[in-house]
Amino acid sequence: xxxxxxxxxxxxxxxxLIATTQILMHLWNxxxxxxxxxxxxxxxxVPAYSIQSFLSIIYPDRSLFFNTIRDCYEAYVLYLFTKLIxxxxxxxxxxxxxxxxxxxxxxxxxxxxxxxxxxEKSYHRIKQGVFQFIVIKPLTSCLALLLAGWNVYKEADFSxxxxxxxxxxxxxxxVTVSLYSLMLLYxxxxxxxxxxxxxxxxxxxxxxxxxxxxxxxxxxxIVRLGWFGEFEEATLFVSSLQDLILCIExxxxxxxxxxxxxxxxxxxxxxxxxxxxxxxxxxxxxxxVIYDAKKTFTxxxxxxxxxxxxxxxx
Length: 314
Description:
Elements: H1 2-28, H2 33-43, H3 45-58, H4 63-89, H5 92-102, E1 104-106, E2 115-117, H6 120-149, H7 163-188, H8 190-193, H9 198-225, H10 231-260, H11 276-284, H12 287-297
Antiparallel strand pairs: 1-2
Helix pairs in contact: 1-2, 1-3, 1-10, 2-4, 2-11, 3-4, 3-10, 4-6, 4-7, 4-9, 6-7, 9-10
């Protein structure tokens, strides 16, 4: 435990230092708030994961609670990246205008033989496909806490009378649908997004989510197979090992995020006048997320006003 705590603290401290510096530099050069708001929130993902993993090493009996917080932020980041893509293009109206101009795209594997017609309706379906994860993931995480209180939820236990199996299935389907929808959005707007290096940004986010989610599934299977001995002892050992690996991975991820979400892209000789404290408040405020989620899932076909835009202006 001492060795794990020492390595975890070093990695966590490094991650927090890099990420905090990066966010502060973005806020110091806050010249494109519609983009940097989402970038700053996305970068927060790395220290959030690292701190959660480190706290789980120190307090293993509370790891499920810390995992719940991490899971909620995981869903939040997919939303943020989707919004960042939309803002890179110029907002929702321009995305729909682009959809109408492009008309159609093929689906991704294994549905590549099917065609997706691009219009306002398909845009909202894609957006809902991404955003459903930010609703389902926190719900399943909170359900896991509730079931654990009733002693019917144990991590790595795939038995039919245990909630872990069903939460894992739901989360797996939800994140797959979300990532598939996000890839459809990127494929539809590829030409507009290419100058912004969105592939590297997407890979950074996907790598963090992939390693945290599938790593936990892989370790759960290994524990179930009995490779680390008795179930109870193996669960504690693997949980601590997974948290340590995540601390190390987040230290590496902080370097990748520093490069792909660089503040240097927004440095200008003549800075925009703004309040630094207000910028910090905007980054931490999530009212816009709640409003956008409500608007996405209560969409009733109201026009976005894209007819006022012409394709030549994009």
